[in-house]
Specification:
Blueprint lengths: L19 E6 L16 E6 L4 E7 L4 E8 L7 E6 L8 E7 L3 E8 L4 E8 L4 E6 L5 E6 L3 E6 L1
Antiparallel strand pairs: 1-2, 2-3, 3-4, 5-6, 6-7, 7-8, 9-10, 10-11
Length: 152
């Protein structure tokens, strides 16, 4: 078996004023959004401040840059975030789940300062949101010991 290389922290956090609860990377399919065809290295971070921050990691510069900060995504702690593999030419689809008994599906244009969302109301706090491998079905796990599915 090949020996594993040494892992090194390049930069600790994109924000230091809150407790972070989840992070997810953009899928490789997002590289088609990039004008130069480079790998995208985008990721989304959520936490107890009800915000979602989208950042870009530059391997060349070895640093993280905040691309978009959505200040009030939910009225309660955001417990999970999931980036859809069905992110297309001009936008990304990201789901967030919160203690405010809701899941939101965000459509975000990474080049422009534009975004919209659809809210799915549930009967109890949401703990997990996960897209299927195609990105057209979202599973939402919430504290009523149930899983809700949303279809695009």
């Amino acid at each position: 078996m090949k020996e594993m290389g040494k892992w090194v922290f390049l930069k600790e956090a994109t924000r230091n004023d809150t407790i972070l609860t989840a992070v997810c990377w953009a899928p490789r399919t997002l590289r088609f959004l990039m004008k130069d065809g480079a790998d995208p290295y985008y990721f989304a971070v959520v936490g107890c401040d009800n915000k979602m921050i989208i950042s870009h990691f530059s391997p060349e510069l070895k640093r993280v840059q905040v691309v978009r900060s959505l200040e009030v995504c939910h009225s309660g702690w955001i417990r999970d975030v999931s980036w859809s593999p069905a992110s297309f030419l001009n936008h990304a689809l990201i789901a967030t789940g919160s203690e405010d008994n809701s899941c939101k599906i965000w459509r975000i244009d990474l080049d422009k300062n534009e975004h919209s969302s659809q809210t799915l109301e549930l009967t109890s706090p949401v703990w997990r949101v996960k897209w299927n491998f195609v990105g057209n079905l979202l599973a939402v796990g919430y504290t009523s010991n149930e899983v809700a599915n949303a279809v695009t």
